């Protein structure tokens, strides 16, 4: 079986949760391969890459996505498109709205144009090197999550203490779509206690792969 770990906004292929997951699988599930792609690209490229990767992996074995934050958004889209299982960690559901915060924090060093209407104006550059532009926000708006195509193949694991995203909104969205939602008290957006939940995570992954 394959697990594709889909990291969040300010992260990369060497994200802490991705590394913890890979190490745990190597020790306890040697037959499971964890893929940790670097996804610091424009959203259309991320979606295309993940869709192609999942399709390719599923030709030989099962594949499940584990997506954190913005990675949860992409994992939902890819699950809708391919039918693969997806386990979401504090998923972003409205990046076209939540990423608007960068519009109010554009520094002079990040500007590529003097025109505020220029779609190539860089709003924010992630730690992994993705330069977010207004065009990216438009893509997210055009690919707004409205429904879950395969609700039984999607599980959302959400921390009520998420300080960045609205946990109640995310929980309501996935629950109303018929997906299983597991709310955990406290915690934070980064899912700092991820290591403690790896046995539960792998149990859910195995259910989603069936």
CATH topology name, in short, is Rossmann fold
Query: What's the number of structural domains?
Result: 1
Number of strands: 8
Uncertain runs:
107-115
- The overall pLDDT, averaged over residues, is 92
Please indicate the percent range of residues in DSSP E strands (runs of 2 or more): 15-25%
Number of contiguous helices? 7
Provide the descriptors you would attach to this structure in a database record.
Rossmann fold, single chain, alpha/beta, 210 residues, six-stranded parallel β-sheet, two-stranded antiparallel ribbon
Care to describe what's here?
The chain is α/β, with parallel strands linked by helices. It has one domain (2-93, 145-209): Rossmann fold. Helices cover 36% and strands 18% of the residues. The chain contains seven helices and eight strands. The protein has helices spanning 16-28, 43-57, 70-82, 95-98, 134-142, 167-176, 198-209, and strands at residues 2-6, 33-35, 63-68, 85-89, 122-125, 131-133, 154-159, 180-184. It has a six-stranded parallel sheet, sandwiched between helices. Strand 7, helix 6 and strand 8 (180-184) form a beta-alpha-beta unit. Helix 2 crosses helix 3 (70-82). The termini are close together.
């Amino acid at each position: 079986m394959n697990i594709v770990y889909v990291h969040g906004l300010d992260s990369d292929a060497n994200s802490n949760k991705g590394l913890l997951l890979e190490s745990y699988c190597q020790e306890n599930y040697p037959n499971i391969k964890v893929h940790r792609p670097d996804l610091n690209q424009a959203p259309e490229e991320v979606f295309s890459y993940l869709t192609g990767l999942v399709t390719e992996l599923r030709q030989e074995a099962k594949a499940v996505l584990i997506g954190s934050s913005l990675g949860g958004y992409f994992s939902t889209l890819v699950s809708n498109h391919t039918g693969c299982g997806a386990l979401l960690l504090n998923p972003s559901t409205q990046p076209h709205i939540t990423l608007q915060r960068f519009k109010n924090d554009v520094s002079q060093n990040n500007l590529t144009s003097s025109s505020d209407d220029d779609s190539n104006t860089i709003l924010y550059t992630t730690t992994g090197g993705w330069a977010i532009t207004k065009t990216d926000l438009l893509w997210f708006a055009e690919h707004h999550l409205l429904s879950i195509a395969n609700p039984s193949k999607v599980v959302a694991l959400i921390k009520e203490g998420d300080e960045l995203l609205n946990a109640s909104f995310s929980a309501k969205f996935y629950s109303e779509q018929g997906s299983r939602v597991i709310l955990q008290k406290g915690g934070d957006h980064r899912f700092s206690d991820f290591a403690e939940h790896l046995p539960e995570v792998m149990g859910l992954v195995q259910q989603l792969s069936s």
